[in-house]
Amino acid sequence: MNKVISIHTIRFFVLILAQVLICNHINFMGNINPYVYILFVAFYPVQNNRLLFLFFSFLLGISIDMLADSGGIHAASILTIAYARPIFLKFAFGSMYHNIKFDSTELGSKITYIALLTILHHFIFFSLEVFSISKTILVLQKTLFSSIFTILLCVILSIIFSRNTK
Fold it and tell me: What does the pLDDT profile of the chain (166 residues) look like in tens digits?
């Protein structure tokens, strides 16, 4: 149990540092940024306390907001995907998602799951960032391109750091 807690604690802090120190400074083609910190929400154990998970998700988002001076949009968007996560788990992995081990899932299901979380996160994030109905096309454009970049990066990171040794 202590090993599991320490792994998620390390993941929590590494993702904050990676997001703030590396990913926030990637500005590919003017407005495409990866948001890899959503991997915390994606791979947090399903069986753990949901209220604690929502608290940690908020803490992760507000930490990034404070370090990046972004006014709460990271916290709002990550808390939303953390709350909606059971819906995406059920869609990607079926009704037996309660017993899922992310290291032993099929790649297609994992990509679907990460893509759904990422698209929802990015849509909320960019909607709050732009905060203008007249700029809906800009929100959709930023959501699409940043989502593609984030999904690719998250899938690559999940493959690299997977403990599955098939």
Answer: 576 677 878 889 999 999 999 888 887 777 788 999 999 999 998 887 899 999 999 999 999 999 999 999 999 999 999 999 999 999 988 877 777 877 778 889 999 999 999 999 999 999 999 999 999 999 999 999 999 999 999 999 988 887 654 4
User: Which tokens sit at 92?
Assistant: 């990607």
Domain boundaries of the chain, sorted by first residue: 2-160
117: its two tokens: 């979380």
Phi, psi of 32 (to 5 degrees): -105, 115
Domain 2-160 has CATH 2.30.110: no
As given in the structure block, the two tokens for residue 65 are 């907001």
If residue 126 lies in a helix (H) or strand (E), which one and from where to where? helix 107-130
Place of tokens 């059920």: 90
Q: Hey, is 47 helix, strand or coil?
A: coil
Maximum alpha-carbon separation in the chain: 50
Whether this model's pTM surpasses 0.85? yes
Q: Are 60 and 37 in contact (CB under 8 A)?
A: yes
